[in-house]
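#onboarding

Welcome to the new folks! Below is a worked example of what a typical request in this channel looks like: someone posts a single protein sequence, and someone else replies with the predicted structure as tokens. Don't worry about understanding the tokens yet, we'll cover that in week two.

Example request:
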Amino acid sequence: MQISDTHFGTERPAVVEALVRLVHEQAPEVIVVSGDITQRATRKQFDAARVFFERLGSIPMLIIPGNHDIPLFNIVARLFAPFRNYQRVCGTDLEPVFSSARWLIVCVNTTRAYRHKDGEVSSAQMKRVAELLQTAAPEQLRIVVVHQPVAVINDRDRDNLLHGRNAAVRCWAAAGADIVMGGHIHVPYVLPLHESHHHLPGRLWAVQAGTAVSKRVRQEAANSVNLIRYSDSQQPRHCVLERWDCTVPEIGFQCFNTHTLICGMMNDRV
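Example response:
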């Protein structure tokens, strides 16, 4: 399950309850939280996030920071200890990795203290991710997690694109990535990067999540999360991506739509 942009401090309590119910009902093997855990990176907001995470049970969680997870107004803390409150709750590893029989998930910290909201991926980060991807077993679904998007569907969101994205997409596609997950703009969608980036050796999908529980929803999207279903016995490798929306908290999250994502090299038989 992909949860993104919870923005604790602006959360809708009824939607939080609905999401806790969904997690326990679906019991995902692993949860990815793709940034912006809090609204203003305060101790109180991270404590609220901690309570939420603890309510999800013992499911492994991979969490990365977003631009809202470092102080904005406390300049000294932003420059010298930007992740102090984040690491107290979310752990000291800013780029966790999860590997199992079916999954290889590699996280990238794209948040920078010297940028207001923009994200960036460095050449060293691209190389690290590529080296990890190259260790994947043939049956593993390979996911890279960033905060800012590598592709957008609306021109108004172009200013939010990840710096270094084009080189990263080429590098990670060559290393065998299947999906690049992101958040940041609170709009859920799926895009085939292999159609917009010429000469990629394999199929690579951009999977964006909406805001999971915050009242900071966009006009075109309700609170939502993503759920990926994958069986390592499927040939060619493919997964089903489900978008779950919460429009009426009392009813809870409902499956809004599904996409089948074919993975692997372009010359694989489909």
